[in-house]
Amino acid sequence: MNITRWLISIALIFVVIASLGFVKFQQIQAAIAFGESFPEPSGSVKSTVVETVELANSYDVIGEAKAPKSLTLTTEYAGPITYVGFAPGDNVKADQVLLRQDSSLEQANLKAAHARLKLAKAQYKRQATLLSQKRTSQNDVDMAEAEMLIASAEVENLSSVIQKKTIKAPFSGVVGLEDYQVGQMLDVNSVITQLVGDSNIIWIDFALPQTAKQPAIGNRVLVTVIGQSEETYSAEIIARNPQVDSASRQITYRASLDNTNNVLSPNQMVTVIVSGASSHHVLVPTNAIYRDHTGNYVYELKRDDNNDWRANPVKVTVGERIKDNQVILQGLTGGEFIATEGAFKLSEGLLVYTQAPNSFNGAGE
After folding, report:
1. pLDDT (0 to 100) of residue 365
2. Is 42-55+280-353 in CATH node 2.40.420.20?
3. Cβ proximity of 259 and 201 under 8 Å
């Protein structure tokens, strides 16, 4: 009797477990069917065929405008100002007196030096006459000559000091904005003004890396003012530094630019475009490139067995940017079908919806 009860209990438990398992199986099947009713994850993007174009190899480098004649005038002696011959920003002529320092002491000493020189000359002449008459020694004549030369040197020294206390423009040009007053005290090596010479040309100095193709003297480069890229000027290379800079490993060039209209000012920073030989490059839209911590990628779109587009990431090496396009140095050869706008939404193997051009092999939506 007890065995029968146990068998009945076991049978009931088995029936309950089987019923629960069947119910769970039905739920799982329903969930699978529900999941399969959803469409596969996908992304819609714009696309294009990778092109190869012929581009002139060029380098955009920073250059600096320099005046062919530019000089900082300074004082050699200390002293108060007695005359100012220029106003800030004036156009001055060559040999124009710009500033004069007090030289009254040197002028007085110069008069005394002239008197001593006159006396020394007379004494030397007298001693030379006496020597011809054998009434004095050669030593006395030599001493008189030495005194005369010393007096002459003193005159020259004082004349030089007086001259150097009168500051003149060495060439015609425009002075800086310095402002001086009569009576103002100047120390030794005080900056008087910056003089920029008159010229219809301006130099453009720039440097190229030693690995770049070096231009020849006489080649022309394009110059644009930083912040004013719509204006472009042509300049001719006139000189090259004979050695590579040991620190930057660059070679410095100088170009001459017609500056008749004063479009550039000395020390102004410019962009110099140095063109080289043309070559073929792979070009893709900038928005086709996405970046992560491992590098730069584009998504190439390929057909699967169902003739649907799938995303396939391709690692690329990028070069210079040209407007809205990027030069690809490695990774693409041209002719590939890639995602552009919306590429950031894709992942490897993702189903992609796009409109392929009719000219692309394998296309056909």
Report:
1. 39
2. yes
3. yes
Q: Give the integer Cα–Cα distance in Å for 89 and 195.
A: 10
10-residue stretch averages of pLDDT, the chain, 365 residues long: 71 75 71 61 87 81 95 95 95 95 95 94 90 85 91 95 95 94 95 94 94 89 85 94 93 95 92 83 91 91 89 90 87 91 87 72 42
Single-letter amino acid code for the residue at 191: V
Token digits for 92? 């001055």
CB 362 within 8 A of CB 62: no
As a whole number of angstroms, the distance between CA 285 and CA 48 comes to 9
Retrieve residue 120's tokens. Answer: 């020394």
The owner of tokens 């993007």 is 45
Q: Is the pTM of this model over 0.85?
A: no
CA distances (Å), origin 278, targets 10, 137, 185, 344: 89, 88, 62, 33
Question: Domain spans of the chain?
Answer: 42-55+280-353
